[in-house]
Design a protein that fits this description.
Blueprint (H helix, E strand, L loop, with lengths): L1 H10 L4 H5 L1 E4 L2 E4 L12 H7 L6 E5 L5 H9 L4 E6 L2 H13 L6 E5 L10 E6 L14 H4 L4 H4 L7 H9 L4 E10 L5 H10 L4 E6 L5 E7 L3
Parallel strand pairs: 3-4, 3-6, 4-5, 6-7
Antiparallel strand pairs: 1-2, 7-9, 8-9
């Protein structure tokens, strides 16, 4: 009976991860629900690039399930981290995943609108912000459109609002050698790079995922 119920839910496009309650990401299983964006393989490129340089303190903007923050703290065992999310439910989910993977003592999860609750400076700021334009939402798969939080998918405008906020504010929270890494839509590279260059970031790159498509913004504080 339970199996038939699960099949019925899948038939109406409820994601498998929601049916089983978890999703694998970078070698670990993370608890998920309809309150957070599912971890996705493309985001593992962000993890790899983040780990390519050392860091002691990391800030995760829009932490969601906490998969990025928790993974970075689990891989960098001497690091401290802060995760911010506007959704209280997402903060609870991220906190649960931090406990699950043994990094809760080094993870400070706070409800916040972007940098609102951030304190201090960080060697690394990471984000997987809502980057779908409002016009794109009708064409995304029902698993996303109907079963994942809209605020994690789109800004309701052109999909670039979060990058404008990060470009204008992040330098005030970075150390002298700090960097920003943010996931982007595969067609957004030139636009996101221009936002950061226009915002005074001296070193900006757009880097690909394993599929060879633009996926990660990399920006250093000016030299």
């Amino acid at each position: 009976e339970r199996f038939e119920n699960l099949v019925a839910l899948r038939a109406v496009r409820v994601p498998v991860s929601h049916l089983v309650g978890q999703r694998a990401f970078y070698g670990r299983d993370f608890k998920v629900s309809r309150d957070v964006l599912d971890p996705r393989p493309e985001t593992e490129s962000l993890i790899e690039l983040s780990l390519s340089e050392p860091f002691n303190r990391v800030l995760d903007l829009g932490t969601g399930s906490g998969c990025i923050l928790v993974t970075l703290l689990a891989e960098q065992t001497n690091a401290q981290g802060m995760g911010l999310d506007l959704s209280e439910a997402a903060c609870l989910q991220a906190s649960a995943n931090a406990v699950l993977h043994g990094v809760a003592g080094r993870a400070d999860i706070r409800q916040s609108d972007w940098f609102g609750a951030a304190e201090g400076r960080f060697d690394l700021i990471v984000a997987n912000p809502p980057y779908l334009a409002k016009s794109e939402m009708l064409s995304v798969a029902p698993e996303l459109r109907l079963h994942e939080p809209e605020m994690a998918l789109t800004d309701g405008h052109d999909g670039l609002s979060a990058y404008r906020i990060i470009a204008s504010q992040a330098q005030g929270y970075l150390t002298a050698t700090g960097r920003v890494l943010a996931e982007i839509g595969w067609q957004q590279g030139p636009e996101v790079a221009a936002i950061f260059r226009d915002g005074g970031w001296g070193r900006v790159r757009i880097l690909p995922d394993l599929d060879g498509r633009d996926r990660v913004l990399w920006a250093h504080t000016p030299a």
